Amino acid sequence: MPKPSGFLKSLGPGLVTGAADDDPSGIATYSQVARNRLRMAWTMTVQLPLMAVIQSVAARIGCVSGHGIATTFAAIIRRGCCARWCSC
To answer: Residue 82 contacts by C-beta under 8 Å, 6 or more apart in sequence?
Structure first.
């Protein structure tokens, strides 16, 4: 297999990540945006702060535990610490 040229090398894994984002739910979202234009733009004022908080919490959990958020929550659920909040 030939080595990638300079331009392709500079794209790196971002090219694959960007291409992987075109799943059916993403395409449905894109079509709704195209149909509604900016009528739903107000939702960004709600979504952006919530996304920032989730990213911050996930980063702090990762720094403290040394694991990702999914691994940390899986360990909590396995220990049964959340039995009173969810019926797993």
So the answer is: 76, 88
